[in-house]
């Protein structure tokens, strides 16, 4: 069991950033509207996440750390319509097998919270009552303390934190309605209020991507035959130092997809031939029945039922929007 879990852990847990991704996705799945993250030493020493989501029932607490324990699939057909971000039930089991993990949770109508701790697999698993507001806290300490071979592959504190930060930015861009606080070594790094109107959405984009990007980008929102594309497309002046600023979301999930990348690059180049690396934060929304974003759990691929139609829509929408503002 130990070995099986550590092998499974290798698939989802590569570094602190992969832990953060899984924990954030769980909080979002739990309907959290407020998430706080504390990171110490790039996440190698400590990752702590607190949310105000639905919480976990006392009797399910230990189960949440067990392999293949997911509360998110009830029938097989659910697999075809997975709306939640996680559905494999592996993350917490894997993370707890390679760290010192404490899970504290309380459902809104429960009269108290419960806590379970795990150190590696099966070592020192305990449950105890605890004080905690409705929601869930997960503390992950000393990542890979029992897997020296993996620990050796971790990079500097700064590099690991950069990866953590990137994961958080990606998620913060996809969930404007969720407030998010991030601290690193006790210092506030990001403090995002919930953003439910145009102005506050633009403010969040500017906190994450920089004011220069928002000020010099084209804001668009186009809907046609069931497809909607909205967001910000950087014009050349904004793109200069922002070649890594490329975020594309399909139904709220970030993807890196060749078809999408091609449509964007082609449209931009056809209007602005010198803009080779456009910066963008774009959101595509379409019927979840005609897209599969779960092709592989850790990759960012996506499969559209009618990829030609999606490509044409992206290309023509961006081409037209850019042509309209071309100087
Ligand atoms: P998955 O997300 O694939 O179901 P995980 O191992 O990530 O599997 O989580 C296991 C289970 O623990 C989830 O299905 C969920 O029921 C519960 N859980 C984990 N994190 C939270 C959270 N922040 N709030 C509420 N429930 C949670
Ligand atoms: Mg999960």
From TrEMBL:
A molecular function GO annotation: ATP-dependent DNA damage sensor activity
Annotated signal peptide: none
GO CC, one annotated term: mismatch repair complex
Record's keyword annotation contains DNA damage: yes
GO BP: any one term: mismatch repair
The entry's keywords: DNA damage, DNA repair
Record's function text: This protein is involved in the repair of mismatches in DNA. It is required for dam-dependent methyl-directed DNA mismatch repair. May act as a 'molecular matchmaker', a protein that promotes the formation of a stable complex between two or more DNA-binding proteins in an ATP-dependent manner without itself being part of a final effector complex.
Family according to the record: Belongs to the DNA mismatch repair MutL/HexB family.
The protein's name in its UniProt record: DNA mismatch repair protein MutL
Organism: Azomonas agilis
């Amino acid at each position: 069991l130990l070995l099986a879990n550590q092998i499974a852990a290798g698939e989802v847990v590569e570094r602190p950033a992969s832990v953060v991704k899984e924990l954030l996705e769980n909080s979002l799945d739990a309907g959290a509207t407020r998430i706080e993250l504390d990171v110490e030493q790039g996440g190698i020493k400590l990752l702590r996440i607190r949310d105000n989501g639905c919480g976990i029932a006392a009797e399910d607490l230990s189960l949440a750390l067990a392999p293949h324990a997911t509360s998110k699939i009830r029938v097989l057909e659910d697999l075809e319509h997975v709306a939640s971000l996680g559905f494999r039930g592996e993350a917490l089991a894997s993370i707890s097998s390679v760290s010192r993990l404490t899970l504290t949770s309380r459902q809104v109508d429960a009269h108290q919270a419960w806590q379970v701790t795990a150190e590696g697999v099966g070592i020192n698993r305990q449950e105890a009552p605890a004080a905690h507001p409705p929601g869930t806290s997960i503390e992950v300490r000393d990542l890979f303390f029992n897997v020296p071979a993996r620990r050796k592959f971790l990079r500097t504190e700064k590099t690991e934190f950069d990866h953590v930060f990137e994961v958080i930015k990606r998620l913060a861009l996809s969930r404007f309605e969720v407030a998010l606080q991030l601290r690193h070594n006790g210092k506030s790094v990001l403090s995002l209020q919930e953003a439910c109107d145009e102005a506050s959405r633009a403010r969040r984009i500017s906190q994450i991507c920089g004011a220069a990007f928002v000020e010099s980008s084209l804001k668009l929102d186009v809907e046609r035959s069931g497809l909607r594309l909205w967001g910000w497309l950087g014009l050349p002046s904004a793109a200069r130092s922002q070649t890594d600023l490329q975020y594309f979301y399909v139904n709220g999930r970030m993807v890196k997809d060749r078809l999408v990348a091609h449509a964007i690059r082609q449209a931009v180049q056809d209007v602005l031939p010198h803009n080779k690396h456009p910066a963008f934060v774009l959101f595509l929304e379409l019927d979840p029945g005609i897209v599969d974003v779960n092709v592989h759990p850790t990759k960012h691929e996506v499969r559209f039922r009618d990829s030609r139609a999606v490509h044409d829509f992206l290309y023509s929408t961006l081409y037209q929007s850019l042509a309209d503002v071309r100087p």
